[in-house]
Write a structure and sequence with these properties.
Helices cover 68% and strands 0% of the residues. It has helices at 10-13, 18-36, 42-60. The mean pLDDT is 84.
Length: 62
């Protein structure tokens, strides 16, 4: 089960596949980390997101 960020309401994402929701969440999380001044290896973060999205999309099917 995927946890949704607090700012996202379930009805707003009801029609979106999990990969889209996850992608949006990751983009927002990366921006939050930048704004907070937290050190983050962006290349590694993006690689991890890409791997997770590939697997999610495979599970979602065509």
């Amino acid at each position: 089960m995927m946890k949704l960020p607090f700012s996202t309401k379930a009805k707003e994402v009801a029609n979106e596949p999990p990969s889209v929701v996850f992608s949006k969440y990751c983009a927002e999380e990366l921006e939050r980390r930048r704004d907070a001044g937290k050190a983050v290896n962006e290349r590694q973060f993006q690689a991890a997101v890409a791997l997770a999205l590939e697997r999610l999309r495979r599970e979602e099917g065509p």
